[in-house]
Amino acid sequence: MISWKGRQKDLYFLKVRIRQKVVAMEEHFRDTIRQKIVDSQARAYPSFTRRDTRIPAVAGKAVAVIGMRRAGKTTLLWQLMQESEESGTGREEMLYFSFEDERLVGMRATDLQLVVEEYYRLHPRLRDNRKVLFCFDEIQVVEGWDAFARRILDSESCRVFLSGSSAKMLSREVGTSMRGRALEATLYPFSFREYLRHRSLEPREEPARWTKRDRSAIRHELEEYLVYGGFPESLGVRGRDRMELLKSYVDVTLLRDVIERHEVSNPTALRRMVRHLLANPAGSFSVNRFHNDLKSQGITAGRESVYDYLGFLEDAFLLRTVPISTTSERRRMVNPRKAYPIDMGLIGPYDRSGKANTGHALETCVYLELCRRGYEVAYVRTGEGYEVDFHATDPEGNEMLIQVCAAAADSKTLAREVRALGKAAEEHPRAELLLITMEPPAGKGLSGKVKTVQAEEWLLEELPWR
């Protein structure tokens, strides 16, 4: 039988061994962190295509780069560092640190301070003397990262950028965990301008100075862009490989950012919803109708669950939904929403019609560009039943009614689109009326209030608030 003193002795030695392990682990982390800092600061900037993402600039706030997986968030952090260096910031005053490293497994929130300590051990003259730039990638793998980020914003002279692919770095999560100390920079797949830049085809001249050859080349690239989309890694990949790659993006997002995060109990219904929404871009989506369709197919899912699934998919940046334009909250709730994938490239792998889907792909493209430009977007359905694709309000409060039509050269098609704009204008008299098309009508043939613009020209506009 073990005596009380024997137990005390065993407990003492157990504590000693635990303490030794903690110290050894801390030294291991220190060594790893120090080496990662040295390697990061010696590393040449990776080659990348410059992004036009708007980055908030408010003193005392971290910036969380958010968006769907594989959109290029890590690359954007390197771009921010390079731009800072070009503006006069020394390389030693910046740190890119990724926590997605098997050597850091087991790291706790208290260990995050080691990154700061080791950085300033290497650069002691910078502490409280220069404002340094910390870019923390995949920091969400360490539980308690948010408290650490808030603390160093208060205690160190630094700017902080955060990024990660986990659900914990999504918009709602960041807003909650950072308690008002972080602003968001939403990164989408390549815009059309970024797509052209990636292919070294970005036009240097304004549209008025494009030659016929320029126009033909840009039109061809737009047609390709509407099919293949803007996920950086997928460009240049064709055929079955591209389809499988894009489907893998969707599958990983569903598994990690939706099913695991929210403990979804009916993944069959969720996956059925995703296939339906991605195969029907720009389509009207009614929760009640979809819920009834599931029931008719013998799939059990509560109506509230379907509402939840739609919200989960938006949180994960897999798609976006657009409400009807109205001041009535009840009308907004009871009317269907229009759903758009986060990239046109996601349409093809799920569309089984076998037909070209240029019109809906173009509408999706225009919607995503409005989001990039910071517009608030809704769709319009008039009392007479006419529908306009978008009622968009820019950051300065200006309104636009936008109709997207792949081919407006046909007189009947043109008349239908213009009539809908005219009716919607009666409800939104301050709005500019815009028809975006790939095939404009011959001659002027439009109401004086309706402006028509070719899709490629509109997509390549430069705006002051971007």
UniProtKB/TrEMBL annotation:
Residue ranges annotated for the AAA domain, each copy included: 61-196
Ranges of residues in domain DUF4143: 256-406
InterPro entries per the UniProt record, alphabetical: AAA_14, DUF4143, P-loop_NTPase, WH-like_DNA-bd_sf
PANTHER family attached to this UniProt entry: AAA+ ATPASE DOMAIN-CONTAINING PROTEIN (PTHR33295:SF8), ATPASE (PTHR33295)
Protein name: ATP-binding protein
Native organism: Chlorobium luteolum (strain DSM 273 / BCRC 81028 / 2530) (Pelodictyon luteolum)
